[in-house]
Amino acid sequence: MNKLPSLKNLTYLLALHQHKNFNRAAQACFVSQSTLSSGIQNLEDQLSCQLIERDHKSFLFTAMGEEIVQRARSIINDTEELLLYAKSKGNPMEGPLRLGCIPTIGPFLLGPLAHALRAQYPDLKLKIREDTTEQLLNYLRDGDLDVLILALPVDLQGNQQWVLGRDPFKFVYHPNLMTHHNKPIDYEALPNNSIFLLEQEHCLSGHAVTACKLGNTKKVNPFTAASIHSLVQMAESLEGATFMPQMAIDQGILNNCNLASMAPAGDAAYREIGLVFRPTTTRRQTFRHVAEVVASLLPVNTLS
User: Fold this and answer.
1) What start and end residues bound the annotated signal peptide (predicted)?
2) What is the pLDDT of residue 83?
3) Does the pLDDT value for residue 188 go beyond 60?
4) Hey, which residues does 168 pair with through a beta bridge?
5) From the CA atom positions of the chain, what is the Rg in Å?
6) Any idea what the CATH number is for the domain that residue 75 is in?
7) What is the mean pLDDT of residues 94-114?
8) Number of helices (H) and strands (E), helices first, in the chain?
9) N or C: which end of the chain has fewer CB within 10 A?
10) Residue 109 dihedral angles phi and psi, to the nearest 5°
Protein backbone atom coordinates (compact mmCIF):
# COMPACT_ATOMS: atom_id res chain seq x y z
CA MET A 1 0.00 0.00 0.00
CA ASN A 2 1.22 3.46 -0.85
CA LYS A 3 2.03 5.72 2.08
CA LEU A 4 -1.02 7.82 2.87
CA PRO A 5 -0.92 11.60 3.41
CA SER A 6 -0.84 12.56 7.07
CA LEU A 7 -3.77 14.29 8.71
CA LYS A 8 -1.30 16.86 9.98
CA ASN A 9 -0.29 17.91 6.48
CA LEU A 10 -3.93 18.01 5.37
CA THR A 11 -4.61 20.30 8.33
CA TYR A 12 -1.75 22.57 7.24
CA LEU A 13 -3.28 22.79 3.76
CA LEU A 14 -6.70 23.69 5.17
CA ALA A 15 -5.20 26.35 7.43
CA LEU A 16 -3.39 27.96 4.52
CA HIS A 17 -6.56 27.95 2.44
CA GLN A 18 -8.51 29.55 5.28
CA HIS A 19 -6.00 32.23 6.30
CA LYS A 20 -4.54 32.99 2.84
CA ASN A 21 -1.18 33.66 4.49
CA PHE A 22 1.67 31.29 5.45
CA ASN A 23 2.52 33.10 8.68
CA ARG A 24 -1.07 33.30 9.95
CA ALA A 25 -1.71 29.68 8.94
CA ALA A 26 1.40 28.54 10.82
CA GLN A 27 0.32 30.46 13.92
CA ALA A 28 -3.13 28.87 13.75
CA CYS A 29 -1.47 25.42 13.64
CA PHE A 30 1.04 26.32 16.38
CA VAL A 31 4.01 25.48 14.17
CA SER A 32 6.73 27.47 12.45
CA GLN A 33 6.18 28.79 8.95
CA SER A 34 8.92 26.53 7.60
CA THR A 35 7.26 23.47 9.18
CA LEU A 36 3.93 24.30 7.59
CA SER A 37 5.53 24.99 4.20
CA SER A 38 7.49 21.73 4.33
CA GLY A 39 4.35 19.80 5.27
CA ILE A 40 2.46 21.15 2.27
CA GLN A 41 5.43 20.44 0.00
CA ASN A 42 5.51 16.88 1.34
CA LEU A 43 1.79 16.59 0.60
CA GLU A 44 2.37 17.70 -2.99
CA ASP A 45 5.13 15.11 -3.36
CA GLN A 46 2.92 12.33 -2.04
CA LEU A 47 0.00 13.30 -4.27
CA SER A 48 2.28 13.92 -7.27
CA CYS A 49 0.52 17.16 -8.14
CA GLN A 50 0.94 20.88 -7.61
CA LEU A 51 -1.47 22.30 -5.05
CA ILE A 52 -0.11 25.84 -4.87
CA GLU A 53 1.52 28.14 -7.40
CA ARG A 54 4.20 30.17 -5.61
CA ASP A 55 6.34 33.17 -6.34
CA HIS A 56 8.49 35.30 -4.03
CA LYS A 57 5.64 37.39 -2.60
CA SER A 58 2.37 35.56 -3.18
CA PHE A 59 0.71 32.24 -3.95
CA LEU A 60 -2.55 30.88 -5.25
CA PHE A 61 -4.23 27.50 -5.16
CA THR A 62 -4.34 25.52 -8.38
CA ALA A 63 -7.58 23.98 -9.62
CA MET A 64 -6.36 20.62 -8.27
CA GLY A 65 -5.41 22.34 -5.02
CA GLU A 66 -8.96 23.63 -4.58
CA GLU A 67 -10.32 20.15 -5.19
CA ILE A 68 -7.89 18.60 -2.71
CA VAL A 69 -8.89 21.22 -0.11
CA GLN A 70 -12.54 20.15 -0.39
CA ARG A 71 -11.63 16.49 -0.04
CA ALA A 72 -9.21 17.18 2.81
CA ARG A 73 -11.90 19.10 4.68
CA SER A 74 -14.24 16.12 4.39
CA ILE A 75 -11.49 13.75 5.62
CA ILE A 76 -10.69 15.91 8.65
CA ASN A 77 -14.37 16.33 9.56
CA ASP A 78 -14.99 12.59 9.25
CA THR A 79 -11.93 11.84 11.38
CA GLU A 80 -13.09 14.22 14.11
CA GLU A 81 -16.52 12.58 14.11
CA LEU A 82 -14.84 9.17 14.35
CA LEU A 83 -12.97 10.32 17.45
CA LEU A 84 -16.15 11.69 19.01
CA TYR A 85 -17.95 8.44 18.28
CA ALA A 86 -15.20 6.42 19.94
CA LYS A 87 -15.06 8.70 22.99
CA SER A 88 -18.82 8.46 23.47
CA LYS A 89 -18.69 4.64 23.16
CA GLY A 90 -21.31 4.79 20.42
CA ASN A 91 -23.87 6.72 22.48
CA PRO A 92 -25.06 9.56 20.21
CA MET A 93 -26.02 11.77 23.15
CA GLU A 94 -22.62 11.78 24.84
CA GLY A 95 -19.60 13.96 24.23
CA PRO A 96 -19.18 17.49 22.88
CA LEU A 97 -21.64 19.19 20.56
CA ARG A 98 -20.41 22.44 18.97
CA LEU A 99 -23.49 24.49 18.16
CA GLY A 100 -23.65 27.83 16.37
CA CYS A 101 -26.52 30.28 16.62
CA ILE A 102 -27.28 33.74 15.22
CA PRO A 103 -27.60 36.76 17.58
CA THR A 104 -31.30 37.31 16.76
CA ILE A 105 -32.12 33.84 18.11
CA GLY A 106 -29.43 33.08 20.69
CA PRO A 107 -30.41 35.44 23.55
CA PHE A 108 -33.97 34.10 23.55
CA LEU A 109 -33.36 30.39 22.96
CA LEU A 110 -29.93 29.25 24.11
CA GLY A 111 -30.64 29.55 27.85
CA PRO A 112 -33.79 27.39 27.79
CA LEU A 113 -32.13 25.05 25.29
CA ALA A 114 -29.06 24.51 27.46
CA HIS A 115 -31.24 23.76 30.49
CA ALA A 116 -33.45 21.34 28.52
CA LEU A 117 -30.50 19.46 26.99
CA ARG A 118 -28.75 19.23 30.36
CA ALA A 119 -31.91 17.74 31.90
CA GLN A 120 -32.56 15.23 29.12
CA TYR A 121 -28.99 14.43 28.04
CA PRO A 122 -26.61 15.17 30.93
CA ASP A 123 -23.64 13.58 29.15
CA LEU A 124 -23.95 15.86 26.12
CA LYS A 125 -21.42 18.68 26.45
CA LEU A 126 -22.82 21.73 24.68
CA LYS A 127 -20.36 24.28 23.30
CA ILE A 128 -21.96 27.42 21.89
CA ARG A 129 -20.76 30.02 19.41
CA GLU A 130 -22.85 33.06 18.44
CA ASP A 131 -22.14 34.87 15.17
CA THR A 132 -23.68 36.03 11.91
CA THR A 133 -25.12 33.55 9.44
CA GLU A 134 -22.22 34.02 7.02
CA GLN A 135 -19.56 33.38 9.65
CA LEU A 136 -21.38 30.40 11.14
CA LEU A 137 -21.65 28.75 7.72
CA ASN A 138 -17.90 29.25 7.29
CA TYR A 139 -17.25 27.59 10.66
CA LEU A 140 -19.53 24.70 9.70
CA ARG A 141 -17.72 24.28 6.38
CA ASP A 142 -14.31 24.31 8.08
CA GLY A 143 -15.38 21.75 10.69
CA ASP A 144 -15.19 24.19 13.61
CA LEU A 145 -18.91 23.72 14.36
CA ASP A 146 -21.14 20.65 14.16
CA VAL A 147 -24.60 22.13 13.71
CA LEU A 148 -26.26 25.54 13.38
CA ILE A 149 -29.54 27.14 14.43
CA LEU A 150 -30.44 29.67 11.74
CA ALA A 151 -33.36 31.72 10.51
CA LEU A 152 -34.65 30.58 7.13
CA PRO A 153 -34.63 30.94 4.20
CA VAL A 154 -30.87 31.16 3.69
CA ASP A 155 -28.33 29.97 1.13
CA LEU A 156 -27.30 26.64 2.65
CA GLN A 157 -24.11 26.40 0.55
CA GLY A 158 -24.66 22.69 0.01
CA ASN A 159 -25.57 21.88 3.61
CA GLN A 160 -28.80 20.24 4.75
CA GLN A 161 -31.56 21.51 7.02
CA TRP A 162 -34.51 20.48 9.12
CA VAL A 163 -37.21 23.11 9.51
CA LEU A 164 -38.03 23.17 13.22
CA GLY A 165 -40.75 25.78 13.60
CA ARG A 166 -42.04 29.29 13.06
CA ASP A 167 -41.31 32.48 14.94
CA PRO A 168 -44.08 35.04 14.20
CA PHE A 169 -43.22 38.72 13.80
CA LYS A 170 -44.98 41.48 15.73
CA PHE A 171 -45.14 45.14 14.82
CA VAL A 172 -43.81 46.94 17.90
CA TYR A 173 -44.45 50.67 18.22
CA HIS A 174 -44.45 53.65 20.56
CA PRO A 175 -47.99 54.75 21.54
CA ASN A 176 -47.29 58.30 20.36
CA LEU A 177 -46.65 57.00 16.86
CA MET A 178 -50.13 55.56 16.43
CA THR A 179 -53.26 56.97 18.01
CA HIS A 180 -55.46 54.14 16.79
CA HIS A 181 -54.98 50.55 15.70
CA ASN A 182 -55.69 49.68 12.08
CA LYS A 183 -55.75 45.99 11.23
CA PRO A 184 -53.98 45.26 9.02
CA ILE A 185 -51.64 48.11 9.74
CA ASP A 186 -51.28 50.76 7.04
CA TYR A 187 -47.55 51.46 6.74
CA GLU A 188 -48.27 54.40 4.42
CA ALA A 189 -49.93 56.23 7.30
CA LEU A 190 -46.68 56.18 9.30
CA PRO A 191 -44.14 59.04 9.11
CA ASN A 192 -41.06 58.53 6.97
CA ASN A 193 -37.99 57.21 8.85
CA SER A 194 -40.18 55.92 11.68
CA ILE A 195 -39.39 52.20 11.38
CA PHE A 196 -36.06 51.02 12.79
CA LEU A 197 -34.26 47.87 11.63
CA LEU A 198 -31.10 45.92 12.41
CA GLU A 199 -27.87 46.25 10.45
CA GLN A 200 -27.91 44.50 7.09
CA GLU A 201 -25.54 41.74 8.25
CA HIS A 202 -28.42 40.44 10.40
CA CYS A 203 -30.89 38.43 8.32
CA LEU A 204 -33.76 39.40 10.65
CA SER A 205 -34.30 42.71 8.87
CA GLY A 206 -34.64 41.16 5.43
CA HIS A 207 -36.91 38.39 6.72
CA ALA A 208 -39.12 40.86 8.60
CA VAL A 209 -39.43 43.37 5.76
CA THR A 210 -40.37 40.60 3.30
CA ALA A 211 -42.70 38.67 5.60
CA CYS A 212 -44.49 41.78 6.89
CA LYS A 213 -44.98 43.31 3.42
CA LEU A 214 -43.15 46.57 4.07
CA GLY A 215 -42.68 47.89 0.54
CA ASN A 216 -42.02 51.61 1.07
CA THR A 217 -38.37 52.02 2.04
CA LYS A 218 -38.96 55.69 2.89
CA LYS A 219 -40.56 54.51 6.10
CA VAL A 220 -37.28 52.89 7.22
CA ASN A 221 -34.89 54.99 9.30
CA PRO A 222 -31.35 55.02 7.82
CA PHE A 223 -29.83 54.54 11.28
CA THR A 224 -29.67 50.87 12.25
CA ALA A 225 -29.17 48.88 15.44
CA ALA A 226 -26.54 46.22 16.13
CA SER A 227 -28.77 44.07 18.35
CA ILE A 228 -32.44 43.45 19.07
CA HIS A 229 -32.06 45.01 22.52
CA SER A 230 -30.70 48.20 20.95
CA LEU A 231 -33.56 48.11 18.47
CA VAL A 232 -36.07 48.22 21.33
CA GLN A 233 -34.27 51.16 22.91
CA MET A 234 -34.25 53.09 19.62
CA ALA A 235 -37.94 52.49 18.95
CA GLU A 236 -38.86 53.60 22.46
CA SER A 237 -36.60 56.63 22.87
CA LEU A 238 -37.24 57.98 19.35
CA GLU A 239 -40.96 57.14 19.45
CA GLY A 240 -40.78 54.91 16.41
CA ALA A 241 -41.53 51.31 15.52
CA THR A 242 -39.86 48.05 14.52
CA PHE A 243 -40.53 44.38 13.87
CA MET A 244 -39.89 41.96 16.71
CA PRO A 245 -39.81 38.13 16.73
CA GLN A 246 -42.29 36.46 19.07
CA MET A 247 -39.58 34.50 20.89
CA ALA A 248 -37.96 37.78 21.98
CA ILE A 249 -41.30 39.07 23.27
CA ASP A 250 -41.95 35.79 25.09
CA GLN A 251 -38.58 36.19 26.85
CA GLY A 252 -39.63 39.62 28.14
CA ILE A 253 -37.75 42.00 25.85
CA LEU A 254 -40.63 44.51 26.00
CA ASN A 255 -40.96 44.38 29.78
CA ASN A 256 -40.55 47.73 31.52
CA CYS A 257 -40.62 49.75 28.29
CA ASN A 258 -43.31 51.94 26.77
CA LEU A 259 -43.93 49.96 23.60
CA ALA A 260 -46.98 48.08 22.36
CA SER A 261 -47.27 45.27 19.82
CA MET A 262 -49.76 44.13 17.21
CA ALA A 263 -49.92 41.77 14.26
CA PRO A 264 -48.18 43.19 11.16
CA ALA A 265 -49.46 43.11 7.60
CA GLY A 266 -48.93 39.91 5.64
CA ASP A 267 -50.51 36.45 5.84
CA ALA A 268 -47.15 34.78 6.48
CA ALA A 269 -45.58 37.26 8.91
CA TYR A 270 -43.07 34.89 10.47
CA ARG A 271 -39.58 33.51 10.05
CA GLU A 272 -38.77 29.83 10.02
CA ILE A 273 -36.11 28.41 12.34
CA GLY A 274 -33.98 25.55 11.10
CA LEU A 275 -31.18 23.21 12.11
CA VAL A 276 -28.38 23.16 9.52
CA PHE A 277 -25.64 20.53 9.23
CA ARG A 278 -23.12 19.12 6.77
CA PRO A 279 -24.52 16.49 4.37
CA THR A 280 -21.59 14.16 5.14
CA THR A 281 -22.15 14.06 8.90
CA THR A 282 -22.51 10.76 10.73
CA ARG A 283 -24.25 12.41 13.70
CA ARG A 284 -27.78 12.72 12.34
CA GLN A 285 -29.19 10.79 15.29
CA THR A 286 -27.62 13.27 17.70
CA PHE A 287 -28.86 16.24 15.69
CA ARG A 288 -32.37 14.80 15.47
CA HIS A 289 -32.69 14.62 19.26
CA VAL A 290 -31.38 18.18 19.53
CA ALA A 291 -33.81 19.31 16.82
CA GLU A 292 -36.74 17.90 18.76
CA VAL A 293 -35.72 19.83 21.88
CA VAL A 294 -35.22 23.08 19.95
CA ALA A 295 -38.57 22.70 18.17
CA SER A 296 -40.36 22.22 21.49
CA LEU A 297 -39.06 25.61 22.64
CA LEU A 298 -40.20 27.60 19.58
CA PRO A 299 -43.46 29.58 19.44
CA VAL A 300 -44.79 27.24 16.71
CA ASN A 301 -43.38 23.71 16.40
CA THR A 302 -43.51 22.39 12.81
CA LEU A 303 -40.93 19.59 13.01
CA SER A 304 -42.35 16.46 11.43
Assistant:
1) none
2) 82
3) yes
4) 270
5) 24
6) 1.10.10.10
7) 94
8) 10, 10
9) N
10) -125, -35
